[in-house]
Amino acid sequence: MVLVLTGIAIIMGCILAWVNHVTEGPIAQQKEKTLAEGIKAVMGGGDLNVAKTDTVPGNVNGKDATFVVYQTEDAAGKPLGAAVESSTMGFGGNLKVLVGFNTEGNILGYTLLEHAETPGLGAKADKWFQKGAKGDIIGKNPSEPLVVSKDGGQVDAITASTITSRAFLLAVNNAYKAYMAVPEEKK
């Protein structure tokens, strides 16, 4: 009985390893496609290219973090700004955001790349802070950090989901800091 169970466990382990290996490529391609579509969306759409990718070291809640800054340009080579990947811990886990900034540092758009927030509550962050919504941050410049109104700020938090709102705004503020930390000659 022990040998049979050991044999089955070894066979299943090999099958799982094979499936993992086979799906690695398609999963990576899907992530790249999602990122490319996200960059286009947060930068306002249109014909744009990622001219340069920079990594910026930072600190989030006392932990080392790395931010990825995708410098964008139009078809003529004119700089449009950058899309910045930023993540922090939300209520349910990691909250990864892609935020688009124009050359002046104003927010053009954002998209959630990854989250583990409560469905129906914290998961509303994908729409809550968009243009025309209750917590609209589009067009704002986080040179003065964005803060929820409950903490004395100017942004309405998601109803019954203040922790997620704080985490989201922290990710946006950190993305802005990372964008501003890129040396001017690299922009």
Written overview of the protein:
The structure is a single chain. Strands 1-2-3-4-5 form a 5-stranded antiparallel β-sheet, sandwiched between helices. The mean pLDDT is 89. The chain is 35% helix and 28% strand. It has 3 helices and 5 strands. It is of the alpha+beta class and 187 residues long. β3 and β4 form a beta hairpin.
How many individual β-strands? 5
Low-confidence stretches: none
**Helix fraction by DSSP (H/I, runs of at least 4):** 25-40%
The profile of the biggest β sheet is: 5 strands, antiparallel
Which structural class should the secondary elements be placed in? alpha+beta
Which strand order do you get reading across the main beta sheet?
Answer: 1-2-3-4-5
Overall residue-averaged pLDDT value: 89
Task: Give the helices and strands as they follow along the chain.
Answer: HEEEEEHH
Number of contiguous helices: 3
Beta percentage is 25-35%
Q: End-to-end span in angstroms?
A: 65 Å
Rounded Rg: 20 Å
Shape: globular
List the main descriptive attributes of the protein structure presented here:
187 residues, alpha+beta, 5-stranded antiparallel β-sheet, globular
How do the helices and strands line up, and which of them pair or pack?
Blueprint lengths: L1 H41 L5 E13 L2 E12 L4 E11 L4 E8 L5 E8 L10 H4 L33 H20 L6
Antiparallel strand pairs: 1-2, 2-3, 3-4, 4-5
Quick structural gist:
With 187 residues, the chain is of the alpha+beta class. The protein has helices spanning 2-42, 125-128, 162-181; strands at 48-60, 63-74, 79-89, 94-101, 107-114. The N and C termini lie far apart (65 Å).
